[in-house]
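Researcher: Please predict.
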Amino acid sequence: MPSGAVTQIAALVAMIFGALTILSGGTTIMGTLDIGAVVPFVLWFNTAAGFFYVAVGVGLWVGRAWAFPLVLVVLVATVLVFAAFGLHVVRGGAFEMRTVAAMTLRCAVLAGVALAARHASKGR
């Protein structure tokens, strides 16, 4: 697969994943979606991060050099929030197992997008 196609796919994945993140987080924050034991700082971070996923996707789509550093910042921040969530769990805080799965998925998706963005940035 040509590298341009990989970059475009990564851009689409980032934009769609971001839009879905904003939608699910927003509906949960507004109280229209009950997902059980919400960990507020994780919910708010993920919802806000969704806007950055979209920005990364747009940046990749139009070939902006800032897309790679931005996705790295978002990935590192997500890993740090995941670690703080882990601390919350270890301390006995209420949580849903799907949050563990969702945070793992977020880290994996962001890592994949970061790899594509890195590869794209080398071609500039």
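Model: The mean pLDDT is 94.
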